[in-house]
Write a structure and sequence with these properties.
The chain has 280 residues and is an alpha/beta fold. It has 2 domains: 99 residues, no CATH class; 149 residues, Toll/interleukin-1 receptor homology (TIR) domain (Rossmann fold, 3-Layer(aba) Sandwich). The protein is 52% helix and 8% strand. It contains 7 helices and 7 strands. Strands 2-1-3-6-7 form a 5-stranded parallel β-sheet, sandwiched between helices. Strands 4-5 form a two-stranded antiparallel sheet. The protein starts with a helix and ends with a helix.
């Protein structure tokens, strides 16, 4: 087999490897097909074009058979760097899209009228307990908003967090979200009927280490922050086998149901009582 034939076979195999590597890194060929095609063309130029140029400029002291393996290695190195950077950028964009779809609710705190003679004064917010509400937009956005409003009225809006507003450019979003969760005393995980099985184009969202809900929960569990499952829509606590390894302790956390009206406010009252009791 001639050097040219061997180079052609290696190029074909490497081109197939590029496509496979892109898919393994979670890159959609529909979205990133142009980059993959550019990498394949770059490889062909490197393997078939550069050796001839080197032979010409070296007065035939460097034969194509000697130079094309080095050109192939350069192609593989370039491809590795480009695909990894694309995958990292795609992960940040996916997390940012999830963050952008969570629009923080404005605290609905109405100004109460001045109490009349003999009226009991309004309870003062408890400043020391900091809460983080973890929820999936497609599963429980409305409930998360209502719960945020009630807890804000009781504990103070500055002590209840429902969303990480944005991830600064160039920052590892996993560490950023973990730091936000780490500032809280209790994480409330709202779990609806579609929470475990929620999917996107890549598969089940909980199986993706870059999933924002998974990162929030894993950050709290890793830091031994109390996690309270809030079960909505007749959902039950997830079975241990249905959860990724780092989230399996969630299946043993004592949770509480949060029913729709007319039971919503009484359920929230019980939740607040439980949080206050645990704090004491």
């Amino acid at each position: 087999m001639t050097a040219a034939s061997l180079a052609a076979l290696v190029v074909i195999a490497t081109a197939i490897g590029i496509v496979v590597a892109a898919r393994l890194l979670g890159l959609s060929l529909r979205r990133h097909g142009g980059v993959v095609a550019m990498l394949i063309i770059t490889g062909m130029v490197l393997v078939f074009g550069i050796p001839g140029v080197l032979e010409e400029f070296s007065n035939r002291r460097i034969s194509p058979g000697e130079s094309w393996p080095w050109c192939l290695l350069a192609w593989i190195a370039i491809t590795t760097v480009v695909l990894r950077r694309r995958a990292a950028a795609e992960a940040v964009r996916a997390a940012q899209r999830e963050l952008d779809t969570r629009r923080p609710a404005e605290p609905a705190i109405a100004k109460s009228a001045e109490p009349g003679p003999g009226a009991s004064p309004a309870p003062k917010p408890t400043p020391s307990l900091r809460l983080f509400i973890c929820y999936r937009r497609s599963d429980s956005q409305d409930v998360a908003g209502r719960l945020y409003d009630r807890l804000s009225r009781h504990f103070g809006a500055e002590h209840v967090f429902k969303d990480v507003d944005s991830v600064p450019l160039g920052v590892d979003f996993r560490r950023f979200v973990g730091d936000q969760v780490g500032r809280c005393d209790v994480l409330l995980a709202i779990i609806g009927p579609g929470w475990v099985g929620a999917r996107n184009a890549q598969g089940r969202r909980l199986d993706d280490p870059r999933d924002l809900v998974r990162i929030e929960l894993a950050s709290a569990l890793k830091r031994d922050i109390p996690v309270v499952p809030i079960l909505v829509g007749n959902a039950s606590l997830p079975e241990e086998e249905a959860l990724p390894g780092e989230l399996r302790p969630l299946s043993y956390r004592n949770g509480t149901p949060l029913r729709p009206d007319p039971d919503f406010h009484s359920d929230v009252d019980r939740l607040i009582e439980g949080l206050e009791a645990a704090r004491r």
